[in-house]
Amino acid sequence: MEKINKYKHEFTFHILLNIIIAFFISAASYIHIPFGSTKGVLVYCIHFVILQFTIFGFIYVYTLFKTLFKFTFPILFSTLSALAFWVYTQDITLESSIIQAILETKLDIAIDTLSFPFVIYVISAFLVSFFLMKRFQKLQLNNIKSPLFLIAIVAIISFFIAENYRFGVLKRKLPYNSFVSVKNYLTKPEIRLKEPENNITGAKENLHIIFVLGESVRADHLTLNGYYRNTTPLLSLQENIVSFKNIYTPLTYTAVSVPQILTNKATTDISKTSFYSVYSILNKADFYTDWIGNQTLEKSYEAIVKTNKKVTIIDQFHSVLSFKKKKDLALLEQFSLHNTNHKNRLSTIHMIGSHWYYNSKYTKEFEKFTPITNSKYVGSLSKEQLINSYDNTILYLDYFLNELIEELKKSSKETLLIYLSDHGEILGENGQWFHAQKNNASENPAMLVWYSENFKNKNPLIVKNVISNQQQKFTTDFLFHSILDVSKIKGFKIDNTQSIFSDFKEFKKFN
Ligand SMILES: [Zn+2]
């Protein structure tokens, strides 16, 4: 009888602990998700219960190390609560960049964080955990003979089964993502950058290239490429636009596609690990290089971006998993034609683009195709809703690029805009959705070129080549080689067969 009572105490303690963790920490990962229908609510409730069950498993094993648990838990709990406070209030996704910001103490963030509610929250978390430890101390039975131990093992196994079923299903939620982020922060990125030689020069005098790096835009959803809906009403009216619809990349998610696009790494390179950043080569040729981004820099390409002379991130904690963050048009507020004395310039604009959750990427005026999605749970949505929401992001892109082009028309420079999405997007093909999976739709990103009248007048042959190459197949390797080609870089060998500005008829004559 006494034994049963002991188990009861132990059980009550763990239930209480679990509820407190749910309240202070893990619920933060769910609060911003649009649930939509009842089915959506139900699915996320089940998700949450499974998450809490697995947490119980790990915590139970943790409590077996009694002294360690007693002294370290309040600190760990308060730290995780502090992170959760950010997630609750600012819809931040915990990633290695956040850990970096905290550990490498950026003052503005530190001050931002020290609000009165934040301090109250963290102190409450500490006090609650401190009193829990008092209760824990009184527990007499807490060992591997307890029936709870067996349940804990089942809970831990459930965690691995769930992760095996779908990668990140639990790891991307609090508290797990905190540990994953710290681990990612401590591991080195795969790409190493080489410093180019000093003898690199450029033969251009007045060139401004604007490279717009898009997100999750598939080529075949643009009217310019024959899509049946009018998703590019403004761009279709612009002159000097050339759309390349046969771009291929086998790298179908941001963390792997972006480092490839921004360097001389080929889509087929697997074994090589060190490469040249396109920016560091242009810097040697005295180009001004600037980056304006609306995405948190991921570890895999952060070092490449930082080879720009100037880097502006408009919303430092904007991950593709956030919902209520800055829209891409805010990028254009940071873009200016006049901020450099350099003769030549490469500006990169990195969009959040058309990444899921689509509705959070555009404003109400662009809600032209309806009905749109009303839940993040795909199982409760129709194919029509998903495609409507997606196509509205393309309308937003159309407006965005059109605004940018209108601004570029004011420039006296030879101006060239290259738009390339980092990969495509799957919209129901083979029963799949989104990207990061092999599928023709995710491997065919949208790509456009626009050139100014000035550019056309000074570079008639290049314009002629671009137009005649538009049906040709290129891999995303083209970006690096084309930019250096059109910049007339000397002292660095490029592959002309990868440049969209090459005269391919000439190549054929020689071969
Ligand atoms: Zn991406």
Largest sheet: 7 strands, mixed
Overall spatial form: elongated
Oligomerization: single chain
The number of strands is: 15
Give the rounded overall mean pLDDT: 90
Strand content: 5-15%
Q: Which small molecules are bound?
A: zinc ion
Number of domains: 2
For CATH, the homologous superfamily of the largest domain is named as Alkaline Phosphatase, subunit A
Class by alpha and beta content = alpha/beta
Task: State the share of residues found in helices, binned by percent.
Answer: 40-55%
Kindly provide the radius of gyration, computed on alpha-carbon positions and rounded to a whole number of angstroms: 26 Å
CATH class annotation of the largest domain: Alpha Beta
CATH architecture of the largest domain: 3-Layer(aba) Sandwich
- Which spans have pLDDT < 50 for at least 5 consecutive residues? none
What is the helix tally?
17
Biggest sheet: strands side by side, in what order?
A: 4-13-10-3-9-7-8
Distance between the termini: 91 Å
Find the CATH topology of the largest domain: Alkaline Phosphatase, subunit A
Secondary structure elements and their pairing?
Blueprint: H1 2-24, H2 38-64, H3 66-90, H4 96-103, H5 107-113, H6 116-138, H7 147-165, H8 176-186, E1 192-193, E2 201-202, E3 207-214, E4 241-243, E5 247-248, H9 254-261, E6 274-275, H10 278-284, E7 287-293, H11 299-305, E8 310-313, H12 329-334, E9 344-350, H13 383-408, E10 414-421, E11 426-427, E12 433-434, E13 447-451, H14 453-458, H15 460-469, E14 474-475, H16 478-486, E15 489-490, H17 504-510
Helix pairs in contact: 1-2, 1-6, 2-7, 3-6, 4-8, 9-11
Bound molecules: zinc ion.
